[in-house]
Write a structure and sequence with these properties.
Structural class: mainly alpha
Shape: elongated
Distance between the termini: 29 Å
Number of domains: 1
Largest sheet: 2 strands, antiparallel
Radius of gyration: 19 Å
Number of helices: 4
Amino acid sequence: MARITETAAGKGGIFAGAALLWLVLDRATKAYFEGAYALGQTSAHDWLIVRFRLVHNTGAAWGAFGDSTVLLGAFSLAVCIAIACAFAFYGRVSGHEANLAETVALALVFAGGIGNAIDRFAQGFVTDFLDFTFMDFPVFNVADIGVTCGFVLLIIGYLAAVRAQGTSESDRGGDA
């Protein structure tokens, strides 16, 4: 019997579940900080390497593309549509089915993109609230964490798949 991570329906469920969970976490944290903090307010205490500070971001990281909210929102949606299509159809065309790491990675990037796109279209800005204390870094949010960690996990998953493929080919006596 196939494991759930080996079937298309199982992977689709994992993708949808991980994306929904991350999107709900993103929306809930943004709603909390919008309600609990005034714009620009910083937490009274630092929490290890991060403090809380509410900002409204109309651009991208480090102020890039300032006041390009609609353009960035449209770009986010286009990337999310591409991710969903790639997840749904790439394996059928290429013969490479996403492994668990790649599935979760794509879900995190997808959810992060959707979360920030919702902000851009609904509010005209992205709600950011996590501020590193040990370095000059843009204030960010849970959606941004999903995009960043998802991208890193995607690379790890891809490298694991390449390594597994090389191992299986050498086990069969291939030239890998």
